Structures are given as C-alpha cells and as structure tokens.
C-alpha cells in the first residue's frame, strides 16, 4: 500500500474517513499493524507502562524513545510514524526540544508529539519552522499526572473547557498539524475538531467526533492488567461474547479496530465517551 503522508492523512480527514492510529513499540507489531491497515503508528511513552512496567510515563528517557522508534522504523511501514518526546527533554526551551526531536527524527520518526498547550506554542513554532511536523497532546496529559491529580476527565467545567479551547487554538496557530485529545468530553472534542480543520484531532476517550482515534495496543489486545478504563475496548473479544469464548487472533483484532474506527462503530459514545 502507498506510504501514508501528511497530505494523505489530511485527505482522509477531508473526506470524513476517520484516521486509525495505534501505539507500537517494536518491529514485529509494526508489520502486523501495517498489514491490518492502521494509518499511523505512535511510539508512545506509554511504553514506560506497557513495556517497562513503570507506574507512569515519567521515567521514560529520550534514549528509550529513540531505541523503540528505531525498532518500529526498521519495519519500513507504509503507516505514518509518530514518536513521543518524553518528560523532561523538551519543556525547558525550544532548543532543547529541537535537539530531542532531531534524535527521534534520526531514529525514523516522521512527526514528534509533545504534551502541553499555550506554554509550548513557541516551541511548536520553532520545530515546525525547522521542518519537524508536530502533534500536540491536550486533555489528560500523562506526563502531568501528578499536577492534574490523577487520571481523570479534563475540561469538564466551563473554565477548564475554555482553557482547553485556548490551548488547542494556540497549538493550531503555532503550526501543529495533529492534536491528540485524551479524556475530554465528546462534545468539547467535537467542537475543537470543527474549530481547527487544518489540525487533525485524534481522540482517546474523547468520543467519536474527532478526525481519528488512537488506543494503546496492549489495551486493544486485552493484555492490560487491572481496571480497564471506560474508553478502552478489548478487540480480541466479540462484543457480548462470553469470557471463555476463544479470542480473535491479533491480526484480526487489529483489523477489526481499523474497520470499526473507519465505519464509526468505535468509539460508541454510549459506552466509551464522557
Ligand atoms: O503514549 C501514548 O500511548 C499516548 C497515547 C495514549 C495518545 O500518548
Ligand atoms: Na504519550
């Protein structure tokens, strides 16, 4: 299949076809996800949780991110490849962010993602002006989990919603071409999506009104221990099937995720949204 470029992602969004994104941390899964038609792979710093067994994404280093980005990039996928800038390697200055972003681009990323709004606008502009496509990330931003007081829905009251609107506008004005919205009420995510058609919104726990969806691969495969967040669905299980029914193979589960995102069947706002 043809390589997924930024214009291609924009074309999907323009014709109302949701972008299907998943996290990915190694070459084997990269090939499986690519073959299943996933549009974009995110080497997320969620690898701290699902690969390293850390309690949060805070301990993830730039070297860890570069290593996993190289592993995924070696699969030479058609899918667009995004890598997370990890905590502590981009917040201090635009120069610091550029050095870290360059490391991830050299490792094979085509775009970098960073958490934050207005305070990071100058940094986003700095990267974009130097040829690095940027995805911003707003709402529940896991690198700020301690400041946010836990993993909870963001932008619920009017003041918080206004702050989120302003951060999204700042990111769009700074030239971010993609925006992940995590744990945001569906109506607010829909509104931000409509307000910034040039910035592709990708939702996780943000309802069905964004230009695309992303999930953590291990959540989709039902491998994550403990309480499952409401916005997650285990795609290895048929909806409503009994717990002892045989599960779908990985490639089929991923293909179903792609189909359900494209057809607007996932997320189901009655179950997965706030
Ligand atoms: O690290 C990650 O997996 C992410 C997604 C959940 C958006 O940032
Ligand atoms: Na992340």
From TrEMBL:
It is found in: Cytoplasm. 3-methyl-2-oxobutanoate binds at residues 45-46, 84, 113. Binds 1 Mg(2+) ion per subunit. InterPro entries: Pantoate_hydroxy_MeTrfase (IPR003700), Pyrv/PenolPyrv_kinase-like_dom (IPR015813), Pyrv_kinase-like_dom_sf (IPR040442). Keywords: Cytoplasm, Magnesium, Metal-binding, Pantothenate biosynthesis, Transferase. It catalyses: (6R)-5,10-methylene-5,6,7,8-tetrahydrofolate + 3-methyl-2-oxobutanoate + H2O = 2-dehydropantoate + (6S)-5,6,7,8-tetrahydrofolate. Signal peptide: none annotated. Its cofactor is Mg(2+). Pathway: Cofactor biosynthesis; (R)-pantothenate biosynthesis; (R)-pantoate from 3-methyl-2-oxobutanoate: step 1/2. Pfam families: Pantoate_transf (PF02548). The active site is at 182 (proton acceptor). Homodecamer; pentamer of dimers. Catalyzes the reversible reaction in which hydroxymethyl group from 5,10-methylenetetrahydrofolate is transferred onto alpha-ketoisovalerate to form ketopantoate. This is 3-methyl-2-oxobutanoate hydroxymethyltransferase. It comes from Sphaerotilus microaerophilus.
């Amino acid at each position: 299949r043809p390589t997924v470029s930024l214009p291609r992602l924009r074309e999907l969004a323009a014709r109302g076809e949701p972008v299907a994104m998943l996290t990915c941390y190694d070459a084997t899964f990269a090939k499986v996800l690519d073959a299943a038609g996933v549009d974009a792979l995110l080497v997320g710093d969620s690898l701290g949780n699902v690969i390293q067994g850390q309690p949060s994404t805070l301990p993830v280093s730039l070297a860890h991110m570069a290593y996993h980005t190289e592993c995924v990039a070696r699969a030479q996928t058609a899918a667009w490849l995004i890598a997370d800038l990890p905590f502590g390697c981009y917040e201090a200055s635009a120069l610091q962010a550029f050095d870290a972003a360059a490391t991830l681009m050299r490792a094979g990323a085509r775009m970098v993602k960073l958490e934050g709004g207005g305070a990071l606008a100058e940094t986003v502009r700095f990267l974009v002006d130097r040829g690095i496509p940027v995805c911003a990330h707003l709402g529940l931003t896991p690198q700020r989990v301690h400041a946010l007081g836990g993993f909870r829905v963001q932008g619920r009251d009017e003041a918080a919603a206004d702050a989120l609107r302003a951060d999204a506008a700042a990111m769009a004005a700074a030239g971010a071409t993609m925006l992940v919205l995590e744990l945001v009420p569906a109506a607010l995510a829909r509104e931000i999506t409509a307000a910034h058609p040039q910035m592709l919104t990708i939702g996780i726990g943000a309802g069905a009104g964004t230009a695309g969806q992303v999930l953590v691969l291990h959540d989709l495969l039902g491998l994550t221990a403990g309480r499952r967040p409401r916005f997650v669905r285990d795609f290895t299980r048929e909806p409503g099937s009994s717990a002892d029914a045989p599960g779908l193979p990985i490639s089929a589960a991923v293909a179903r995720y792609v189909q359900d995102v494209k057809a607007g069947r996932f997320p189901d706002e009655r179950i997965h949204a706030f």
